[in-house]
Amino acid sequence: MNNPCLPSIHISSANLVFNIWFSDDTGKRKSKKVFRVDKCKILFSERSSNCKFESLKLALIIVTCCTILTLAFSPIVSKEKQVRLGSRTRLADVARMWQATLSDPRYISQLDVDWGLMSSVLEDVKAKEGDLRIGLLNFNSSEVEFWQRTLPHAEFSSVHLDYADPSITWKVLYPEWIDEEGEYDVPACPYLPQPQDKKGSRYDLIAAKLPCDRSGSWSRDVARLHLQLAAAKLAASASAGRSQVHVLLVTDCLPVPNLFSCRDLTRHQGNLWLYKPETAALEEKLRLPIGSCELAIPFEAKGQLFDQIPTETELPKIHKLFMCTVRMYTEVGRREAYATILHSAEQYVCGAIAAAKSIRLSGSVRDLVILVDGTISERERSGLEDAGWKMRTIQRIRNPKAKRDAYNEWNYSKFRLWQLTDYDKIIFIDADLLVLRNIDFLFAMPEISAIGNNATLFNSGVMVIEPSNCTFQLLMEHIDEITSYNGGDQGYLNEIFTWWHRIPKHTNFLKHFWAGDTAKRKARKDSLFGADPPVLYVVHYLGLKPWLCYRDYDCNWDLQMFWGFASDAAHATWWKVHDALSENLQRFCLLQTRTKAFLEHNRRQAAKANFPDGHWRRNISDPRLHICHEKFCSWERMLLQWGKTNSSDGSP
Fold it and tell me: Is 0.90 surpassed by the pTM of this model?
């Protein structure tokens, strides 16, 4: 028989709402009163006097329980959920549902922790002195209890981390464009809260649990990056003056590979990633802006550098100011090198030779390493070696998503750069650029440092990398699943290295004019391309290459679709470097018969269309027009058949 003084209680698991219904002697429900205590909703009716005391006691018990639950399962950092030690307890389920109402969903991880595996992974982590000290980031109270059961002799501290403002999105951290010159506004990154820990805290291990929403762009997730940066900061500060601190990341998704390097990965089992990062390397990375919203190497003398071409006496001062913003040039003899790659592209041999010459003219004495495949002939290899390149022969890597014989079929061969493990740092440069001023300072930058390209992405034409066989394996493991936005290596690398560092655009200045550029802006760019002494550090020659044009003018003028790449000033700058080559090396820049026919065909088409720039009117004085190094030398005869057998799509 039901006791009229005993309530029936309904617990709503979603909101922990307690509905308390009381029946009178007749079993009929009466009107209810509602009281709210924190998250609990208590409903009870008027009752007979002999039941009121017991009801009051029960209500007080329920209020006390709600308070205990609130304190026990309040968020410590960023909330979550289900944990497992053999099997999940009902209390853990209730805790997860309770916290879902309190947490920022961006920080919530739905990951189950295998605590038995956790014990195995951490077996080699030893305390420097006394008991093992562990800092916990993004674990809730119930999970802390599992930590204590798993490692009963360790000391635990739950580190608080405020959530990032919801307005901070990945596009805010990685804007498509920033005002590098500071003409209108000084670029600034938003603030991400720092972990709140006692000053001087010492840990042997920092453990962080990361969200991983595979339904979205998990690799470009602000909360996920925030937690990893916080873990890195805790590890760096905790190891000050002591040996390295381990970092454990609990996640199903790949941690940021250039924050926590695979070279520092000591154990990886299931969703547990245990690192032992170098403190100095972490500290350098943490000093950088959190995204590309600021320059990692700001120009201090931006007024002089951008508003006008500096005089010869001003240039050393500007250069000195610029260099003071980063760690000074690394010592000569360090394991550092410039590198480029030639695969299926013998037409770039001349460009690579000129690039090597430009690096030496800039004053750098770093090693020059070139990766080549079997399509590069012995004669061409000999020329590259004479130019200063150290030869490395590679097996090409095919892009599985490219069509046969497409331009991007073999461009994943660039991943071989990470196999240059006899070097600690590599500045990769495309073979179609010139280094006009010394950029050795970029060796002080971490992986990946590059200029911005479009959207949240970087341009891989000049980039700093840190060779590692495990990073190479990482790149190879995902080539079947990752789709490059542009079909090439640049798009692929942007999916792996989403956390990158913006360097000034002058370190990879693209030879390109936008359709909307004003005449004044175009003239300004041209003045930069032709400045002597140079202002730009690197010029990247897009469009038709200078060595594949007559030296008389930039042949991009003869194709309307290539006008955006045409600059006589940039063209003349490249030919100055060419003229500094030895006569023997200049022979690698001779024109093929087919190329001569292609150039003349385009000139005639430009004349027919009466292009307003008038370059097609110029007489050709380039001596290469009359030098032949092939069996068939009559470009005039080839030209007669050009319209029948060739298309003028811009490819010689």
Answer: no
